[in-house]
């Protein structure tokens, strides 16, 4: 087994994103006068809307009350509305006694298993309703009555130019639309609150929709000073946000409207130190605007959640700004329902759209828009390559890679040279260059595998190459092999900093190719990749015409599916399907030789020969027009 580094380095990407977050935060311009704040706020709001990838569909809400429950001092209306055509939002509207119009609070929740049925959601809603404030408690997509819609599937949405935080944001904007459409709600007195992921929803909604007059984000405030930690969900990762704003800047967009930040001293998910730093930054803005009395910070001796003491603080703040004076509300005598109670149910079962169906429909629309013929498509290749690098991957560093030679050794009669290629200051790409006896070294095969160099000598393709007298460079792109760490944390960090990890991995391979031509005296460089690493190999060959040929084994075949995906979520970079699906990326290799062997369907099952030919039919047509039909080989089993 080949090992390049003396020890594994699983913290590499954590350290890398820590540096990037710190540098990006220091580079941000922030306002120092009220006039600057107005201009800054307009710009940041515009960029935040764009980053959310929201394409508003403000159609008919089709709102309906499906049932009502009478309680002492208030009524619960079980409500369903459509945030976008066919996407159902379920909520409980807690209405005080009397005709209104009542002030209202939109209550959103985080990643709690029972959604709006959770004890703290019901307790807060019921307590405020008894005090004369209506509360609309809604389920987040994938929770409560909306469980069937999916949530983690939102990681796919980036590839079709959407995002999970944007989808949820629009749900909440439409919830405000519903509240303000009712005659018994005072549209001038609306607040929002939630904890954890619900605290982030509170922050983004209040920052972007000024109908929110008071906000209480709980157990969520932070500053991205080191990185987005692994506990975050994709719904809390706004694509490219750190290019123009930190989380504390988004909180500052709420100014000068009333804002209370609540944090738990023992919170290990959103640590209190980050909350304190966020508050200190936001306080400067409120003081600059002469609105220091509209900002409050509360620490509770508790962990992560929306505890009783946290709710008491929220009651004081919400009644102060929605009713004109602080009230000390009590939760004594509440009549709460058990989790998943039929009394609060809005949907009898699955109905309407899901995250997967929204993705599938949008993917089909984008595919229809990529209807160019092979001749015209080939003319646009330079423009397509630029779009993939800049708009999909978020650009690539310009710094030149440096190499450190770590030594040579003999492994099974083969000579192995160990190299540490630094593609960025803090990104080490282990490379093992393997040669057989008498190898001339002019022909190189770049070998890519999720396992890294350790699996190279077991691969038949590597053995065949070495026996034919060529040399092999086993490249461990970032986060694979000896630098493998928390894959999801790395992906989420890459989303927020706006440099997607798929593009960064392709960049590593391109820099390794540079190294082989520059210092390895390469005459030819060919590339081989297996499973998800085959996608990295394919992009590298598509972007670098110096790659003489490519071979992709057990490669995911398409990002278009009506049945979801079993692919790793890092294969869905932003806006990819606006420009190309995997078969179009494969066509970018033409007319150079390309072998696609045992391709996989979206559920990671091998495609039959007939289906594989159908999926890669565009690739086949491009190779034919490019005058190299025999340079494309699609190897898959017959049948099916």
Shape, principal axes of CA atoms: elongated
Question: What's the main sheet like?
Answer: 9 strands, mixed
Overall average residue pLDDT: 94
Our measurement of the CA-to-CA distance between the termini, rounded to an integer number of angstroms, reads 38 Å
Treating each run of at least 4 consecutive H or I residues as one helix, how many helices?
19
* Strand proportion: 15-25%
Q: Strand order across the biggest sheet?
A: 1-2-3-5-4-6-7-8-9
For the secondary structure, the number of strands is 18
| Fraction in helix | 25-40%
What is the radius of gyration? 27 Å
SS class: alpha/beta
Which residue ranges are poorly predicted, with pLDDT under 50 across at least 5 consecutive positions? Answer: none
